[in-house]
Specification:
The chain is an alpha/beta fold. It is built from 21 helices and 11 strands. A hairpin with a 2-residue loop joins strand 6 and strand 7 (321-324). Helix 1 packs across helix 12 and helix 17 (396-412) crosses helix 18. The model is unreliable at 1-7 and 208-217 (pLDDT under 50).
Length: 469
């Protein structure tokens, strides 16, 4: 197994300080949570440096994030996975209580992780052979424009598989064929034929058998049956009329797929999932059970007991081979308004040794969220309206007023964290967004006065703010 390749996908060499700095670009505040995930990530790198039996003994310390919705729990986990290019799966714990007491197949979490890992490794391998695949794609386009001359045979030759007609004729055809290819090749290189329509043969993508297998492990059985049938049946090809530009992309994908060994990809992907996978278990508090509860809570406790073997380390069968979950990093999260972490079953509590509490957002946090991150909301709205030629500008007074209103509504109504800013901004910019194509004055400045005109009446009325915001 190529260790360097695996580390390139799953484990980076950034220090905890560098990881936190990277997360700061997208998430405001929550320093304690950022430090915890940065340390967990660095410990993965450290475990890779160990030798022998100790390397297998050191397992990741799973993290439990506690905090209300919209404070950045999911975003921290998602950005973390993106940062290290690790296979990442987000799953709501409540989805496993949907089908009676038994629940849905919890092992599907690991199967989804394996699928994600295979896609990542396959994509990386295809990138590695991209240049070679593009050259082969070019040759296939040339074959469409200048088909290779067919060898003519006499009727008796066709019947008995005899020799071709005299070789002199073939020698005459060959130079013409080569000259034609060279001429087309030069035109292709100059980009003169990019919009030319050609008819090509492409592999037809297999359609998934939707709705045939649902619930529990039957979903996985459906995948396996589909793969088995696909390997027995010949692959269908169909003719399509496409431009040379699109044909190049289609051919390059086909050729790249032929150049990589899927058995090797599967083997590597399983190892990447085992040692670099990150599973984000959201809404874990919704399956917590208070002592002495019964009824529907039996199902919730059952889900916890089903999740337990995967979190503590077990082997799950997938179509790419068995996946061990011992070294997968699990990050669980929940608001814990109605329950406490101690309401989880003791065995599961013990598997999440790192506990971090994410704080509710205040006015200063909302101000920073509006303007500082690389994907800040104000930057997004400015870019969106710029497509209509509208130059949108937010004054500092408007940002402060929006932050103040967001904090106020979160305090009076439900606390939905930074998501409150989405509802406020949508309501604030509703008129501008609607009129943008017809505006004569394309420079629009938003100040505190405009914010009050659009929002203060809604915020002032408690009933109205709960309904609209």
């Amino acid at each position: 197994m190529d260790e360097k390749r695996i580390e390139a996908i799953g484990v980076n060499e950034q220090t905890p300080r560098e990881i936190v700095a990277e997360l700061d670009k997208y998430i405001i505040g929550q320093d304690e949570a950022k430090r915890s995930v940065a340390i967990a990530l660095r410990n993965r790198w450290r475990s890779r440096q160990l030798k022998g039996a100790m390397r297998e003994e050191v397992i990741p310390k799973n993290i439990l994030m506690i905090g209300s919705t919209g404070v950045g729990k999911t975003e921290i986990a998602r950005r973390l996975a993106k940062l290290v290019r690790a296979p990442f799966v987000k799953v709501e714990a409540t989805k496993f209580t949907e089908v009676g007491y038994v629940g849905r197949d919890v092992e599907s979490i690991v199967r989804d992780l394996a699928e994600t890992s295979v896609r990542m490794v396959r994509q990386e391998r295809m990138e590695a052979v991209k240049d070679k695949a593009e050259k082969l794609a070019e040759e296939r386009i040339l074959d469409v424009f200048v088909p290779e001359p067919k060898k003519s045979q006499s009727p008796l030759g066709r019947l008995f598989g005899g020799a071709d007609e005299p070789e002199e004729k073939e020698e005459e055809e060959k130079p013409k064929y080569q000259a034609g290819r060279e001429w087309v090749k030069k035109r292709l290189e100059k980009g003169e034929l990019e919009e030319e329509l050609i008819e090509i043969d492409v592999e037809e993508s297999s359609r998934p058998m939707v709705g045939m297998f649902t619930g529990s492990s039957l979903e996985n059985m459906g995948d396996n049956i589909q793969d088995m049938i696909g390997s027995i049946m010949p692959k269908h090809r169909k003719k399509r009329k496409v431009s040379v530009k699109n044909a190049r992309k289609l051919f390059a994908q086909e050729e790249a797929a032929k150049l990589i060994d899927m058995d090797e990809v599967a083997e590597e992907a399983v190892r990447v999932a085992e040692y670099s996978g990150i599973v984000f278990l959201d809404e874990i508090d919704k399956v917590a059970v208070k002592n002495g509860s019964s009824g529907a809570d039996v199902s919730r406790e059952g889900v916890q007991r089903d999740i337990l073997p995967i979190v503590e380390g077990s082997q799950v069968s997938t179509k790419y081979g068995p996946v061990k979950t011992d070294h997968i990093l699990f990050i669980a999260a929940g608001a814990f308004h109605m329950a406490k972490p101690s309401d989880l079953i003791p065995e599961l509590q013990g598997r999440f040794p790192i506990r971090v509490e994410l704080k509710s957002l205040r006015k200063e946090d909302f101000e920073r969220i509006l303007k500082e991150p690389e994907n800040a909301l104000i930057k997004q709205y400015e870019a969106l309206l710029a497509t209509e030629g509208v130059e949108l500008t937010f004054e500092q007074s408007a940002i402060s007023r929006l932050a103040e209103l967001a904090e106020g509504v979160n305090t009076d109504a439900e606390d939905i964290g930074a998501r409150r800013l989405h509802t406020l901004l949508e309501k604030l910019l509703e008129e501008i967004s609607f009129s943008a194509p017809d505006l004569e004055e394309k420079k629009v400045t938003i100040d505190a006065k405009y914010v009050d005109e659009r929002l203060s009446d809604i915020v002032a009325s408690r009933d109205l703010s709960q309904f609209i915001l």
